[in-house]
Amino acid sequence: MGTIELLSGMTTPLAMIVVGMVPATFPAREMVDGWRIRAASVTPLLAQIFADVRNTPQIVFVSMNGSSVTVLLITMVLL
User: Fold this and answer.
1) Are 19 and 60 in contact (CB under 8 A)?
2) What is the pTM of this model?
3) What gap in Å lies between CA 21 and CA 69, rounded to an integer?
4) Domain boundaries, the chain
5) DSSP string of the chain?
6) Nearest to 22, CA basis, from 60, 48, 75, 78
7) pLDDT in tens, 23-78
8) Could you give the 3-state DSSP secondary structure of residue 43?
9) Beta-carbon neighbour count of residue 66 at 10 Å?
10) Is 10 helix (H, G, I), strand (E, B) or coil?
């Protein structure tokens, strides 16, 4: 296995670790506070407009939790 292959195999897991660690530094209430965060998590275009270094982890947090709730609700309806 070459160096390039090793580095390319580590890129995605390391990015996921960083994206997971950053939201952990904010209080939970602050993660979902504000209309911009909620709007940007719903509309990807708005995410590009309103996102900055501080808002990006919040948008990811709200989007992931929204997806979890949606999957749960769909599962309950189908079963």
Assistant:
1) yes
2) 0.38
3) 21
4) 3-78
5) --HHHHHHHHHHHHHHHHHHHTGGGS-HHHHS-SHHHHHHHH-HHHHHHH--TTHHHHHHHHHHHHHHHHHHHHHHHH-
6) 60
7) 777 777 777 777 777 776 666 655 566 666 667 777 778 777 777 778 788 888 87
8) coil
9) 14
10) helix
